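Possible regression after last week's pipeline update?

I re-ran a chain I had predicted before the update to compare outputs. Posting the input and the new output here so someone can diff against the archived version. Not blocking, just want to make sure nothing changed silently.
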Amino acid sequence: MNTPLLTVIIPVYNTDSYLRRCLDSVCSQTYTNLDIICVDDGSTDDSSNILRKYAAKDSRITLITQNNLGQGVARNAALRIARGEWITGVDSDDYISPDMYEKLLTYTRDDVDIISCECESVGNGLVRDCAYHHPTFSGMQRVCPALIQKTNCYFVTKLWRKSFVMALGGKFAEGIRYEDAFFYFTIAPYARGIYYLKERLYYYWQRDESTMHDISERGAEHLDVLQRIFNIYRTKGLPAVFGETSPTRFELYLLQTYAWCALEYTPKYMHESLKKRSYKIAREQGLTRSYVLETAWLISSIKLFKLFFYARPEKVCFSFLGIPLLVFQIREDRIFIRIFGIKLPCNNKKH
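New output (post-update):
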């Protein structure tokens, strides 16, 4: 096996309880040709001292310090000085299998731009299985919409060919959360191929104080990510495999996913304004015109509609006095219709 230099980016902010375990798992990898960049994002606990001690004893570690500017800024700072032919990352409260990088780098083919493994959710001695962490794909895959949709968007479970990322001007979103989702959806669709290793090599530590999935006003930042992704697509365009018409059904998937996440992770008092904002984004991108039924749920909060209309991204229902009269069930690329509970044969593709 050849031994390309691999850059590992580790942003750190107040994780001194977990940081040693993270650094030990990276520094003790069976694959040793590593360029490890740790970014201290203004930590106020003992993380800074821990980082300095590890950097002093391992020459592969480069330490960057900055004010608390967020993970996106931290990762971009590391990306600018990354020396590796491949890049990856580890979150400072997570850890990795001792042979993760050795196993993944076995698959550095010329037509592969991303190499991905599975991950395991752990915490407080428990293993929490999650289908999102385990893509169904295996081996070498050519990029297509289904592949991108059904693969988790974690930066850290993947190795990324640096020349490929740099050619796209790749960077992380700054000033908002979910910066790795922005990176994934603005980079992965343009890859020539992705190799999937069906092994759980990354350990995602779920801690009670984590802010990734809490209910707060910051959940609205899902829509900020969505808007920024669409801006990239309008500038670059999507590869032809994603569809000949614009907007593509893949963009509809992103709208449904991120609008629904914004609602799920924000307090209820925000939902009305978030739906209006989601509908505005959908209208600006032409999605409400091209996918009328699929975007109808965004206006289902209007009081008049509530009397006769119920909608979610996958289901639209017209009813009277709570009795469903006409139901459109949306699955993959087809619509199924029920009238008074009777399913009609329908094999048409969605329009």
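Follow-up from reviewer: compared with the archived run. The first strand starts at residue 6 and ends at 12. Marking as no regression found.
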